[in-house]
Amino acid sequence: MKIRIFILTSGNYGSRIINTLAKMGFASSIVRIHEVEENLPEFIDDIEEYIPTNLPEADLILSLGLYGDINMIIPDVAKETGALSIIVPIHDPKQIPIGLQKEIENEVGNKKIVFPKPFCALKPVGDKYIDTFAEVFGKPELEIKADELIRNIEVKRGAPCGSTWYVAEKLENVPVDDAEFEAGGRYHNYPCLASMSVDPQIGDTILHLAGYKIKEAVKKELGFASKSAVVDEELCQGGENCAHICFKECPLVKTGDKTIIIKEDKKIEINPKTCGYCGICVQKCPFGAIEIEENLRFSEPQK
User: Fold this and answer.
1) Are 198 and 174 in contact (CB under 8 A)?
2) What's the CA angle centered on 210, arms 179 and 112, to 5 degrees?
3) Are 9 and 36 in contact (CB under 8 A)?
4) Helix axis angle, 179-189 relative to 206-222, nearest 10°?
5) Is the full-model pTM beyond 0.70?
6) Phi/psi zone of residue 123: left (φ > 0), alpha (ψ -120 to 50 degrees), beta?
7) Is residue 174 within 8 Å of 150, Cβ to Cβ?
8) Where does residue 242 fall: left (phi above 0), alpha (psi -120 to 50 degrees), or beta otherwise?
9) Closest CA to 270 of 42, 132, 2, 285
10) CA dihedral sign of residues 77, 78, 81, 86
11) Mean pLDDT, all residues of the chain
12) pLDDT band at 1, cuts 50/70/90?
């Protein structure tokens, strides 16, 4: 489905994403790019003077790299363009505080708006325009052919910054057992523009979250995790005297992944495909029921 995309952008973060969209064939879908001045005040008294004029019709708005109150132009841009869908990726904890997110959500009304943290966490949400975009850009999905080495990689969905295609190219002919670590290293070399500041809502950095996503895509295809947190069922108390603190503190659970699962018997299970082995659950478990293990095989690699 053809979609019309209006882009609000500021700084290097937005520039990289726009370049990736153009490279992947979306240039003709972009109806306008509006550059927002960098280093604006965090708090703006009169937002109206910053609202762009003579706006074209659009279906989807991308707001890339705007900090603070300037994000309040989003509802007006959506209204003037007629866009029904909005994506506002978050790559820095200081970018859009949760209170500001709620204010923007209230102002856009019945339009669909999502705040993926980071952009490479975006998945289909049941909205036709966001889902059309997410067919190509968002949480990485790979198709890997391998024996003892990775022989071929196809990117089925990639990070909007372009890192997934870069990593995929660098992983060909890498040993399967080294692929997860190599993917993490190459992703850092790209480099990711997400913040290294700890996000207080998730208890980890957004840069780390992005790294977990590309490594997850590799692990799912190869059926192998070099490391993962693992639960000792005999020591796990099933939430008694701990209220499943591991589940509550896991950064990936907080961002919507099913990394820690509470089973019917109330004990927990950790999915090695998605676990980023950050160690937070290991530190938080009061019973010492979780530890990091290496070399977990959970299925056969794709031939």
Assistant:
1) no
2) 135
3) yes
4) 140
5) yes
6) beta
7) yes
8) alpha
9) 285
10) positive
11) 94
12) confident
